Amino acid sequence: MKSVFQKASKSLTSLFSRQGASGVSQGSYAVPIAISVVMHGVLLVFVVWGWQTASPPKQKVMPRYVEATLVTIKPKTVEKAASKPKPKVVDMAAKRQEQQRLKAEAEQKKRLAREKAERERLRKLAEEKKRKEKELAEKKKKEQAEAERKRLEQERLKQQKLEQQRKQEAAFADALAAEEAMLSAQQDEVTAQSYVAIMAQRIEQNWSRPPSARKGMKCELQIQLVPTGEVVNVHVLNGSGNSAFDRSAVAAVKKVGRFDELQKVPSDVFEQYFRQVTIVFNPQDLRL
Amino acid sequence: MAESESLSIYSLIVNASFLVQMVMLILFMASVVSWIMIIQRARYQSHARTEFERFDSIFWSDKTDLPQLYREGNARAETHPIEGAEQIFREGFKAYRRLTQQSGTDPDVIMEGVQRAMRVALAREEEKLEANLPFLASVASVSPYIGLFGTVWGIMNSFRGLANVHQATLATVAPGISEALVATAMGLFAAIPAVLAFNRFSARAETMINGYETFAEEFTAYLHRQVHSSN
Question: For a FRET experiment, which of A129, A230, B21, B70 has its CA 20 to 30 Å from that of A186?
Fold first, then answer.
């Protein structure tokens, strides 16, 4: 990196100091090049990072808060750990011998008790084994009877289920057909809506704003169309209250003349929605 | 947070169109080179001024012997080149010595030769003082226009994109315009130091050249006296 820079500065120096050949130099260019490049580098770094350093302080607040709660927990555990061992050390020193003696006595007692317990345990185990065997035999009989009963019941349930399924399937098919019909109707409505939106846009584009138009004005237009998209008749259903606005809306529809987009509409949709269509003309780009 | 990030200067530069980026690069390079020139000029001219003042005071002190001064200059000329008024003096004195050594030369011919030698040296010094100033002048006058070109191009593009939008708000135009304005800012950033430096350095070079000319005239007058008194 440095060597490249030095080479560049050298070549630049030789390039600029043409007068060096005639025996007069003007001072070297290396220092100015270094200063200028460093200056611009600092500026670049500032531009890249300087604008981003302004926001981070807000983020730093959160980690500090979490750290604070951690610090408050730590001292408690340390204190507990520190307070317990001290008394133990004192006690242990005093009682160690006595404890040893007591331990030895206790161990002897324990050994005797353990032997007794062992004998008793063996006896109990033998008794228990016999009892368990009897119980097992009884259980098996009961289980067999129950299994038979369950099998019969399951078969009955299966038949019932099959019948139910058949009924459900029939109902499902009916519902499906109804739903499909509804869906297709809905889809038609959606396509119709989208074409209505396109029409509204075309009208808006061809509309010239009367000076008295204000924000929020709208009027309902009833347009009669033929399948080629040509407008047969227009009239105002519900006016905005401003006759100039209503007239301008009607004029806009007449100016459009033919909605070419409607030629793409499927004929059944057209018959259902566009033979006579009601459009709410509500221009959005009013400033007042 | 996300929005402020997307409008930082860095991202504005990175997301600009290719032509605007090229304009920014050219302006940045112009700024770097013009600062190299500025620093180099400042160093050279201040050096020339201190040299001139030093030489002037030595030359006009009563004790100075001119042949002695010339010989001292010879010794120094071997290590580094001599500049400014001293160079003018040396050229003039060299010519004077050469012409006076040829016996029987007319005083007017001697003076003419000395004056010619000094004029040549003066012209060379003038050229050195004013080197690189034309570059600063052209950066100063052209870089605002380059920046403006980048801005106009950027705004043009942002408005062309706007034509397809149905509803125009300030938010759709503002990023493009602020992106484009970076180019103008960079143009001004390159131009302002160049203008200031050009004015300052050309004025300084002018005063230095005046000083040299005055010195050359005085030295001529001195030699003139010498030539005519010796005859």
Answer: A230
